[in-house]
Amino acid sequence: MHLATLTHQGRRRLVGRLAPQHPWRLAPPSVTLAEVIAGGTLPWSWSELPIGTDPVPALPYRPGALYGVGPNYPEALTEMGWEWPTEPVLFPKLSSSVIGSGEAIVFDPDLTQRVDWETELAVVIGTEAHRVPEADALQYVFGYTVANDISARDLGERDGQWMRGKGLDTFCPLGPVVVTADEIPDPHRLRIRTRVNGETVQDGTTADMVFRIPALIAYLSRFFTLRAGDVVLTGTPAGCGDFMRPPRALRPGDVLESEVEGIGCLVNPVRGGVRDGTGAGAGCPGYQEAGGR
């Protein structure tokens, strides 16, 4: 099932549909996506949206913890000049960095001039996981969504680690939907694409992952207890702007599209300045689900 949180008649509501061509159906007002993920069961009753309603997409939910994975695709390792890793490289993405489709990626040009894109398949954990065997790891997955691990490369280089460079407010677009795991029988056969102002800059496939999803979950759970609703970003294919020749970076006025096959496409405008905290992307275009292009 495809699950999302939409603003309907001024209220955030959980909605679901069986496929992009099907109509959205409203869950009861008291039910949230975070509760559904934690409980592992979908609501029994749904009501149809009134004909002609155009609900506004919102952030599906705000994860408690997000785990990033460093270079996890062979060509990305090559373009970054990294050796083949013997184990995954981990880093935190802050919950405060998460925004939904349609919201703006906002950065202060006085702080960073090298803001880069990294479209990734994101795994939504559905059951608490601690020291789980790799063979069982996919049983702990609720579903999948799309993320973009926005990165300020200059801050990362200056700091020698990625906390600031990857943790700034608005630096983790997430959504536009969560697709339950039963709808994606093989998450390692999905195309990943990034477009900047309509130009394709990344085009890869999850088939090329160095460390596949079961290995990532098993590895993470050796060190951290993964809880329902936590999100694991799985790495990005080659094509990041900072490694192009000449290098490229996001600029105010750009529109970034982050797409994973079978899930959907985040659409986020880019703004310069300081985020006002009132929903940076209000009024911006921003919702495309898989099959809806």
Automatic annotation (TrEMBL):
It comes from Streptomyces auratus AGR0001. InterPro entries: FAH, Fumarylacetoacetase-like_C, Fumarylacetoacetase_C_sf. Keywords: Hydrolase, Isomerase, Metal-binding. Residues 67-271 form the Fumarylacetoacetase-like C-terminal domain. Pfam families: FAA_hydrolase. GO terms for molecular function: hydrolase activity; isomerase activity; metal ion binding. This is 5-carboxymethyl-2-hydroxymuconate delta-isomerase. SUPFAM superfamilies: FAH (SSF56529). The keyword Nucleus does not apply. GO terms for biological process: carboxylic acid metabolic process. Belongs to the FAH family.
